Amino acid sequence: MFARLFKPAAESQTQQSISIAFEKVNTQESKGSSKFIQTTATTIENIVDKGAGKALGELLTSTEKVNVVEVKGKGGSRYDPGTKTIYWNPKRAIVTTNGTKLSPASGLNHEADHAADAIKDPIGHAARTNTPDPNYDNAEEKRVIQGSEQSTSFLLGETKQGQTTRTDHDAVQIIITKDPMSTKGKTINLPGTLPPVIIKSKPKKNHESD
Fold it and tell me: SS3 string of 123-136?
């Protein structure tokens, strides 16, 4: 079972408010739940309310249908352009290589950016996805991480002004949360990684000049 996002055809695409509707559809990949559908709706509304819903707004006003499939356990989120499906884990936050904590909501918005881009510019999206990048895996991930991921994390209160979420496409820990908007919960180290090293500079003492 997964959520299918769409904007009712009777409403104008220029309307300021974003309408969200969900349709239950069977799938072999994930059974999902009615709770997941409601969680997805609430999370989208929260993201939009905080001013970070640009990509979601593009999806909801598009004539294309985008599916959101529930990922359970420790599994990560991703977007499949072939099936126009976002695979999202509403309980999996991450800790990036520089120690930034990103909520499941940030993860959903990250994948929504991929989805909106794939629908809006399928040729460019495919080209970026197939262009390797030494730090971000590929050019498409670099575009999203350097772009919407930065503004999303700031608007959701996960980073401060000028702070960067990460400079790669990696995470060192996951956090199992109860709330998609939260970064609090049980922290688990990812295999083959070490906890992030966060260096805090000590405040300098004021010395009077001679």
Answer: HHHHHHHCCEECCC
Q: What is the pLDDT along the chain (210 residues), one digit of tens a residue?
A: 345 554 333 333 323 333 343 443 333 333 457 888 889 999 999 999 999 999 998 998 888 889 999 999 999 999 999 999 999 999 999 999 999 999 999 999 999 999 999 999 999 999 999 999 999 999 999 999 999 999 999 999 999 999 999 999 999 999 999 999 999 999 999 987 665 555 454 544 444 433
Model pTM? 0.81
Q: How many domains does the chain have?
A: 1
Look at residue 203 and tell me if it is in a domain: no
The CA distance from 3 to 8, in Å, is 15
Distance CA 209, CA 65 (A): 67
CA distance 181 to 42: 10
Reference 114, options 145, 153, 136; nearest CA is 145
Does the residue 5 lie in any domain? Answer: no
Cβ contact 12:52 at 8 Å: no
CA dihedral of 3, 38, 169, 121, whole degrees rounded to 10 = 40
Domain limits for position 122: 15-189
Helices of type H across the chain: 34-49, 54-60, 104-120, 122-129, 139-146, 148-155
